[in-house]
């Protein structure tokens, strides 16, 4: 059985896909999957579902939800439910099951290690495999509780870091032209992440588009001044100066 949370919550078993349609039960399962193999207390579950003002019978309702989830997971795993009672709440034990977030973390780490060792082909491939696990917004519409919100924030930062490392590896492999389009999309979606602007400038310059590379710098400089009242970071400024001087080949990888 496989739990997937890098997108909407779903459980797969071979070709079969299982979902939970009741919103509160789905939110509860999401919190338990995020904390897989760790105990989630009953109080934490109540806060996840209802915030700081849970209803009077919140604890009893949680017990009912857990009972229903055990039935759903039992159907998905041939009668065995991974939800175990453990004081002061419950734990979802993965056992032989897998979790896409764990696989993403492993592949992204492999990419970072390979990049630092100069194995750029391996780094690029690992990052691509990690990012291919994402199916959309983490846990879809289930955000709101502290457990899911914290995980979603971490996951998005980890995804952006993986994208950055993968791009750096591809730049080292000479894939400049094929990176230009995706990098334009990235700077539009994440205009305050200076690393993506730097990578776009580098890709453009190495694609014989020096004027476009310099235009990217002018745009990000104006944006940072307008939005935050700051100047571009040192790597961006240095790359700008080296492009002006035609010395871009001296710029080291930043990841």
What do you see in this structure?
By secondary structure, this protein is an alpha+beta fold. Among the domains are: 2-98, Arc Repressor Mutant, subunit A (Orthogonal Bundle), CATH 1.10.10.10; 176-255, Serine Threonine Protein Phosphatase 5, Tetratricopeptide repeat (Alpha Horseshoe). The chain is 60% helix and 9% strand. The protein contains 10 helices and 7 strands. The strands form 2 sheets. Strands 3-2-1-7 form a 4-stranded mixed sheet. The chain has a 3-stranded antiparallel sheet with strand order 4-6-5. Strand 5 (83-86) and strand 6 (89-92) form a beta hairpin. Helix 7 packs antiparallel against helix 8 (194-206). The chain starts with a strand and ends in an 11-residue tail after the last helix.
Summary, kept brief:
It is built from ten helices and seven strands.
Termini separation comes to 35 Å
Q: Identify low-pLDDT runs.
A: none
| Global geometry | elongated
- Average pLDDT across residues? 93
Assign the structural class, choosing from mainly alpha, mainly beta, alpha/beta, alpha+beta, or little secondary structure.
Answer: alpha+beta
- The CATH homologous superfamily of the domain at 2-98 is named Winged helix-like DNA-binding domain superfamily/Winged helix DNA-binding domain
């Amino acid at each position: 059985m496989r739990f997937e949370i890098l997108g909407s919550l779903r459980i797969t078993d071979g070709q079969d896909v299982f979902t939970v349609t009741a919103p509160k039960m789905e939110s509860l399962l999401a919190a338990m999957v995020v904390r897989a193999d760790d105990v989630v207390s009953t109080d934490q579950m109540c806060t996840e579902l209802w915030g700081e003002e849970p209803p009077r019978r919140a604890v009893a309702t949680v017990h009912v939800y857990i009972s229903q989830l055990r039935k759903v997971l039992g159907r998905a795993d041939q009668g065995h439910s991974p939800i175990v009672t453990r004081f002061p709440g419950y734990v979802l034990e993965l056992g032989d099951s897998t979790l896409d977030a764990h696989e993403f973390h492993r592949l992204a780490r492999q990419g970072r290690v390979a990049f630092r060792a100069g194995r750029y082909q391996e780094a690029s491939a690992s990052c691509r495999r990690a990012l291919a696990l994402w199916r959309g917004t983490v846990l879809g519409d289930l955000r709101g509780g502290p457990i899911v919100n914290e995980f979603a924030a971490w996951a998005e930062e980890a995804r952006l870091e993986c994208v950055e490392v993968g791009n750096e590896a591809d730049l080292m492999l000479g894939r400049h032209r094929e990176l230009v389009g995706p990098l334009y999309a990235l700077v539009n979606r994440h205009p305050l992440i200076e690393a993506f602007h730097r990578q776009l400038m580098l890709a453009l310059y190495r694609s014989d588009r020096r004027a476009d590379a310099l235009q990217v710098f002018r745009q990000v400089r104006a944006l940072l001044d307008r939005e935050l009242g700051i100047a571009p970071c040192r790597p961006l400024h240095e790359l700008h100066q080296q492009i002006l001087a035609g010395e871009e080949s001296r710029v080291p990888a930043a990841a």
